[in-house]
Known about the structure:
two-stranded parallel ribbon, globular, alpha+beta, two-stranded antiparallel ribbon, single chain
Amino acid sequence: MLPLNVVVKALKQIAPLELAESWDNVGLLVGDPNASISRVLTCLTLTEEVLQEAISLQAELVVPHHPIPFRPISRITTDDPTG
């Protein structure tokens, strides 16, 4: 198991944050940098199906290409996919 901050550091070496566009939402968006990580799931977009797969695989980290959230969130309810 590795601390999340070690995984984040490795990802930054692969994809440096300074190469992102100014509008891009990059880096660690949710989580405790000191949490222990042993399973990582990658995906293009975090969907409900991907989330269910991560849960079934007991992944502690999901690394999507498309960030969630991408735009500022004003509301989180179960009425839409964000919630």
